[in-house]
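Figure 3 (text version): structure tokens given as input.
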């Protein structure tokens, strides 16, 4: 991959979000690189100040990559195909992992959510589901 022709397609506050985006791009045949993760991991509070963790793709892939990521953000609820294990409803939406979730996780569990940890909310019974998705 030519490193002199990379453009930023998305930026994220935390590494798991960036990794999720990179996996999605890879599944669509687009190679990507992450920039800034070392700085953010060492100085998490600086993430916003330095523009977060950037996902870079080659210029020729940019339009496709951008539309994939935009589409993913719009249709996250469609993609899971998850069935509620409480009431067996399929009306389950993905709950994005946000910085609030991560901070709450650190405060309550003392851990940082790893990449691949996904949470869902059942809209029929209102209960939360958690999945570890190995990719
Ligand atoms: Zn349910």
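Below: residues designed for each position.
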């Amino acid at each position: 991959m030519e490193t002199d022709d990379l453009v930023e397609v998305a930026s994220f506050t935390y590494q798991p979000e960036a990794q999720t985006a990179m996996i999605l791009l890879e599944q669509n045949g687009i190679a990507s690189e992450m920039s800034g993760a070392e700085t953010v991991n060492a100085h998490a509070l600086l993430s916003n100040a330095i523009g977060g963790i950037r996902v870079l793709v080659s210029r020729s892939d940019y339009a496709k990559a951008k539309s994939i990521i935009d589409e993913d953000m719009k249709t996250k609820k469609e993609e899971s195909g998850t069935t509620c294990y409480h009431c067996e409803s399929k009306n389950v939406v993905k709950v994005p992992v946000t910085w609030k979730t991560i901070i709450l996780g650190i405060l309550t569990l003392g851990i940082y959510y790893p990449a691949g940890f996904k949470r869902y909310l059942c809209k029929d019974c209102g209960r939360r589901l958690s999945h570890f998705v190995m990719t």
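The first strand starts at residue 6 and ends at 12.
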